[in-house]
Write a structure and sequence with these properties.
The protein has about 100 residues and is mainly alpha-helical. The chain has helices at about 5-15, 25-45, 55, 60-75, 80-85. The protein has a domain at about 20-85. It is about 65% helix and about 0% strand.
Length: about 100
């Protein structure tokens, strides 16, 4: 008999193997590309279907691959990006931009 994992154990496992809180600039750039490309392809494929002949026979495969890439982008982008996405759904969330100082 398989016992269900408790919520606390699952949170600990995700914290150990989940996305890091902060990521470097290169990883963030790659993650943004992975985040934007499936959304852009899904939006444009409706209008450009005649130029993608393979798409009509395999639209479900394209949808699954796009969803997997989108989910992968959340892991690549890290915990700070999760906080940004979560803030979209919180009415009282405020943006705090870092102060840019000119180089000396």
């Amino acid at each position: 008999m398989v016992t269900p994992i408790s919520k606390k154990k699952a949170a600990t496992l995700f914290r150990q193997h989940g996305p890091p809180q902060t990521v470097g600039k290169l990883r963030y750039t790659i993650g943004l590309a992975l985040f934007i490309l499936p959304i852009l392809f899904g939006w444009l494929s409706v209008y450009c279907i005649q130029w993608i002949p393979v798409y009509t026979e395999n639209h479900l495969l394209f949808a699954i691959i796009g969803d997997l890439i989108l989910l992968l982008s959340f892991i690549v982008l890290g915990g700070d990006f999760w906080d940004k996405i979560r803030a979209l759904f919180i009415h009282s969330a405020k943006v705090s931009s870092p102060v840019h100082r000119p180089p000396q």
